């Protein structure tokens, strides 16, 4: 049956738009035009489709379809970011020829791809092998204050750690993401703990123990300012001396606990030289179970959407293909499932 009217005398005695919003496992919008995307982002419900999307408590999938300039328009991209942060999943769009004769990004994915994604999505949301497990994930950079307005930090975006937290949560684990200062949206689902400094991150991790899984993906600052100024430092025409002292080593302290040690501890090694040997050394010295190592010397990893990972444990060394950080998160979470189940 096809429904078109928001208020239909034959359906509204059962509140048809509410019934429709509850009766499916997922709601798929294909094609998702710039107009319907805008309505969802702003909560506008002035017709049957937008009202169902406003009222639903089920996952929503969108397959965008529009002219390349409409897709790249700042308003559309703002709306897409809003929808992603709200937990709405996108299928495509693809790059290709369009009905208007132009070429570019905005072409709707092929129906077969949309059907496959939807079926895989339904299977995934019903698959919860980590349902009885808990996990903590660290992500993003840390900041060490020099004075109230200046700090030392690093360029970590948090994209990889956030993706891992989402992937593990989607497999059913009770997941907490401990995030340093980032500019990306928080993943929908995991509990979020916001921190700034390495010490705050370590304290947050300690407070969440015991847990089954710990993934230390944050780029934690190795040093903090031992002579930080309580007031803003003014120019004086002369040099100033900033003294550094080591921060607590979050990965090492979690890995080497005598009690309440997670059953699986995973660390990351971002290296500019001797990738494998340095990662193997870190695995041994820190006492963790697995290391994901990546070469950051070319500037193509930190802050980017793709990652190139070497997986290292005492019993395995493997090089993963270059893939999106979401795909890395999926592959890692699958290995975690195989470890426990």
From TrEMBL:
Keywords: Decarboxylase, Lyase. One of its GO terms (cellular component) is phosphopantothenoylcysteine decarboxylase complex. InterPro entries: CoaB-like_sf, CoaBC, DNA/pantothenate-metab_flavo_C, Flavin_trans-like, Flavoprotein. One of its GO terms (molecular function) is phosphopantothenate--cysteine ligase activity. NCBIfam families: coaBC_dfp. The keyword Lyase applies. Residues 132-338 form the DNA/pantothenate metabolism flavoprotein C-terminal domain. Residues 13-120 form the Flavoprotein domain. This is Flavoprotein domain-containing protein. GO terms for biological process: coenzyme A biosynthetic process; pantothenate catabolic process.
């Amino acid at each position: 049956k096809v429904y078109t009217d928001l208020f239909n005398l034959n359906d509204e005695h059962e509140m048809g738009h509410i019934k429709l919003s509850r009766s499916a496992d997922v709601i798929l919008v294909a094609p998702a035009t710039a107009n319907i995307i805008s309505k969802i982002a702003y909560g506008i419900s002035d017709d049957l489709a937008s009202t169902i999307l406003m009222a639903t408590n089920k996952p929503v999938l969108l397959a965008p379809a529009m002219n390349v300039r409409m897709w790249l328009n700042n308003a559309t991209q703002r709306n897409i970011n809003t929808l992603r942060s709200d937990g709405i999943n996108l299928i495509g769009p693809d790059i290709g020829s369009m009905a208007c004769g132009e070429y570019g990004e905005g072409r709707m994915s092929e129906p077969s791809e949309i059907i496959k994604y939807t079926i895989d999505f339904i299977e995934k949301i019903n698959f919860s092998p980590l349902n009885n497990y808990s996990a903590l994930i660290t992500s993003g950079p840390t900041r060490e204050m020099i004075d109230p307005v200046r700090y030392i930090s690093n360029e970590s975006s948090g994209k990889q750690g956030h993706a891992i937290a989402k992937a593990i949560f989607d497999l059913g684990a009770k997941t907490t993401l401990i995030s340093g200062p980032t500019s990306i949206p928080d993943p929908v689902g995991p509990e979020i703990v916001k921190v700034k400094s390495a010490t705050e991150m370590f304290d947050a991790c300690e407070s969440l123990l015991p847990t089954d899984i710990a993934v230390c993906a944050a780029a934690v600052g190795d040093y903090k300012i031992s002579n930080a100024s309580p007031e803003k430092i003014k120019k004086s025409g002369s040099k100033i001396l900033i003294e550094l002292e080591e921060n607590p080593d979050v990965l090492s302290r979690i890995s080497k606990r005598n009690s309440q040690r997670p059953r699986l501890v995973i660390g990351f090694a971002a290296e500019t030289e001797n990738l494998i040997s340095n990662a193997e050394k870190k695995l041994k010295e820190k006492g963790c179970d697995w290391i994901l190592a990546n070469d950051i010397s070319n500037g193509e990893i930190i802050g980017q959407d793709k990652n190139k990972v070497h997986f290292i444990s005492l019993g395995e060394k493997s090089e993963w293909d270059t893939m999106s950080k979401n795909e890395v998160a999926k592959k890692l979470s699958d290995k975690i499932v195989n470890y426990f189940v």
